[in-house]
Amino acid sequence: MSDGKQKRILLIGVGRWGANHLRILKSMPIELFVADHHEQRLRAASVPGAQCSTDPRSLFEKVDAAVVVTPAPTHFDICRELLEMGKDVFVEKPITLVSTDAKKLAELADKSALILQVGHIFRFDPASLWLRDAIAAGRFGRLKMLRARFSGFKRPRLDTGVTFADSIHFVDLFNFFLGVMPSRVHAVMQDFFTRGVDDESLLILQYGNGSNDPMFATVEAGYHAPGKFRELTVVGTDSSAVCDYNVAQYKIKTFENRHVTENGEIQALEGTMHQLEFPPEEPLRAELAAFIDSIEKRTASPVDGRAGCDAVRVIEAALESARTGTWIEIAGRNVH
């Protein structure tokens, strides 16, 4: 239960994405602390001097929880230190770059009864929630395939390749939709910038196995193609849907299309198209609100450390597949 006092929350990192966290956290009923190694960013943050620092650790003792928006390679050490001090943590995805590290953080949070939430933001879009419920309710019939594209011409992230930076969004979302991890993955990646990390990526995820009517999903990501694509397609035996996350309200179109066999020939019957409207809710605000609610009420996070670990495990398998050119099995799969 909440003690009625405003929670003291430390935002670590106010760079490109951290600036959006800052904007939203400043509008919430919390006492905000901010840390960033760049003094210029701190000045732009406009928080009281006693509540900001270029040394995040100098503020750890003063707060109840932290929001970690730092480069991915730093996540493990920062989050581990905070959890060991008894602080609740929200960490941007990926939770870590190594699944064994992610597992350690999840276990540490569980052991200490602390909140550890991972920033898989697409789960908080109302359109994603509708798609998950529609799949669970059988609205699409038997699923044939899932397809997603997160690509467009933009500056590459410096701390990871595009699979960890962008593909992981839809990998996690597919896990969320289906309630299970894929059984294996095949991936092709390119390093056009010759930086030693991928900047174009195509993943094929298999859900189920040969004896259980497997379903395949694809995720395409990259920094080179013109435009900006954040879209997902669900194809079922009874109907299909296309979701464009770039659109503010009318994100989903459903199609009552079916294939039927008549006189021994397969016919394609195009059915009614429906356009669905959703409230223009900002997913980042929704996930930060969920984190604050969890730490106040001491309730489970909607995207916990184990869910974050599952997503990293799939990406690890995809990277291994790209290196070896083979399908990589994902053993000991969890459900989140």
Q: Gyration radius, to the nearest Å?
A: 21 Å
Give the SSE string.
EHEHEEHEHEHEHEEEEEEEEEHHE
Helicity level, as a percent range? Answer: 25-40%
- The spatial strand order of the largest sheet comes to 16-13-12-11-7-10-9-8-17
Low-confidence stretches: none
The structural class is: alpha/beta
CATH superfamily of the largest domain: Dihydrodipicolinate Reductase, domain 2
How would you describe what is shown here?
With 336 residues, this protein is of the alpha/beta class. A nine-stranded mixed β-sheet has the order 16-13-12-11-7-10-9-8-17. Strands 3-2-1-4-5-6 form a six-stranded parallel β-sheet, sandwiched between helices. The protein contains eight helices and 17 strands. The protein folds into two domains: 131 residues, NAD(P)-binding Rossmann-like Domain (Rossmann fold), CATH 3.40.50.720; 176 residues, Dihydrodipicolinate Reductase, domain 2, CATH 3.30.360. α4 runs antiparallel to α8. A hairpin with a 2-residue loop joins β14 and β15. It starts with 7 loop residues before the first strand and ends in a 7-residue tail after the last strand.
